[in-house]
Amino acid sequence: MSDAVAGLVGGVVGGSLGVLGTTVSAYYGPRRLEQWRQDRHDQPRKLLLRRMLEDNRFRNGRSLERLMIVTGTEPEECRRLLIQIGARGILFRGGKEGWALIERKPLAGDYSSDASPDA
Fold first, then answer.
1. In the 8-state DSSP scheme, what is residue 100?
2. Closest listed residue to residue 83, CA positions, set 73, 93, 95
3. How many CB atoms lie within 10 A of CB 117?
């Protein structure tokens, strides 16, 4: 009787671990792979955006259009990357959207810029 109980318990435990292992590997494996691919795709763009916003010739910020063209991104993707590198949105004269690093234009200040957007 104890051999039968041990076999039954072993079967239940082994089956449960198999289901759990399959679930974890089927869900978390592809998810981690996708995150790794996204990070690898985003990193060069983040570096380029940071270099553009650190350029001393454009201390008042850069226009979203210019940042999108240089990085080859769509508006929402560009905004997502800008937020991730520590930038914030600003409004240029005429209502044009721009972005600047928070360290250069702290949030405690005005949310607009009297400067013209970059060319």
1. E
2. 73
3. 21
Residue 8: what pLDDT? 84
Q: pTM for this one?
A: 0.68
Tokens 């650190």: give the residue: 54
Question: Long-range contacts made by residues 85-89, C-beta under 8 angstroms, separation at least 24?
Answer: 85/46, 85/49, 85/50, 85/53, 87/49, 87/53
The tokens describing 17, both together, are 């671990």
Task: Output the CATH code of domain 2-101.
Answer: 1.10.10
Average pLDDT over the chain reads 87
E strands, 1-119, are 62-63, 87-91, 97-101
CB-based contact 61:96 (threshold 8 Å): no
Structural domain spans, the chain: 2-101
